[in-house]
Structure formats: C-alpha cells, structure tokens
Design a protein that fits this description.
Blueprint lengths: L1 H17 L12 E7 L4 E10 L2 E10 L2 H14 L4 H16 L13 H10 L9 H15 L4 E2 L5
Parallel strand pairs: 1-4
Antiparallel strand pairs: 1-2, 2-3
Helix pairs in contact: 1-2, 2-5, 3-5
Length: 157
C-alpha cells in the first residue's frame, strides 16, 4: 500500500511539475501574495480572483523545485470554485497532511473523498522533512492572499 502511494506521489509530482496547471497571471486577480523559501530558492506569486466569497480564479507564477511547482499546480485545481471557507479548510487539511503524523491529523471541515485522495498524494512529503516547506509554500501564499495579506513568511511553514 505504501509503495503504491509513493509511486502515485512520484507520478503526480512529475506530471504537475512538468506541466503545471494555471501557471499564469490572471488579468482580473484582486488578491495576490508571494511565497518564498530561501532555503531552496522556491519563489511564487499566487493570484486569486474572489467574487462574492468564491475563488473564481486562482493561478500562480514563479519558479521552484518539482515538488513546490507540483503542489502549487494541484492547489490551483483544488481551490478553484471553492468558497473562501472551503479554501481555508483545504489549506488546514493539506497543512496537517504534510506536517503531522497520521494520528494527529484532522480534516478541518467538509472535504469530499475525491479531494482528500488528491491531497493524500502529497502527504508523502512528510517522509522528507526538508521538502515540507516546498510542498506547502504555494498553499501558504494562497492562504495569505485569501486573507488579504501580500506575503507568506517562511516562518509559517
């Protein structure tokens, strides 16, 4: 089972890393935040278009390792069309998956099974503590943008 998850993790990272989704600057973005990981040079801008409490559009630009790029790409797909509250829930759930042991994790609200499976793929990063910041970087920037902040400090990761 663990080997299957590890193999899926590698496939997803390769796919999203080589072919990132929503890698652009939307013209109508009304929120943005930067995320920077000076330890490995990852640097992203995350752009949100919030309309009536819904993430109508989300995208990113920048550069980073395969893990940070893949995670940013996946984040844009998962957050698109969600309410601000649902995006908060996804952020908290993803952060727990990447940073906490299985028995400490929680689902912070209502996350459907399909989305949870997609998030679980990236949880393999826990096995590589130095890569956790890479995986969570864009998510922290998205969360900062969602809450009207212009950057996410690396201390938050």
């Amino acid at each position: 089972m663990m080997d299957d998850l590890r193999e899926l993790y590698q496939e997803v990272i390769l796919d999203h890393g080589k072919h990132p989704r929503n890698f652009r600057h939307p013209d109508d973005a009304n929120r943005e935040a930067k995320g920077e990981n000076p330890m490995c040079g990852d640097r992203f801008m995350v752009y949100l278009t919030l309309k009536d409490g819904i993430v109508a559009d989300v995208a990113f630009q920048g550069r980073g390792c395969a893990i940070s790029t893949a995670s940013a790409s996946m984040m844009t797909e998962l957050v698109q069309g969600k309410t601000a509250e649902e995006a908060d829930t996804l952020f908290a759930t993803f952060h727990d998956l990447c940073t906490k042991d299985d028995d400490e994790q929680g689902v912070h609200g209502d996350v459907d099974e399909e989305t949870m499976e997609k998030l679980m793929v990236m949880s393999g990063v826990r096995q590589f503590p130095v890569r956790v910041k890479c995986a969570t970087l864009a998510w922290h920037a998205m969360n900062a943008a969602l809450h009207g902040q212009d950057s996410a400090s690396s201390d938050q990761y």
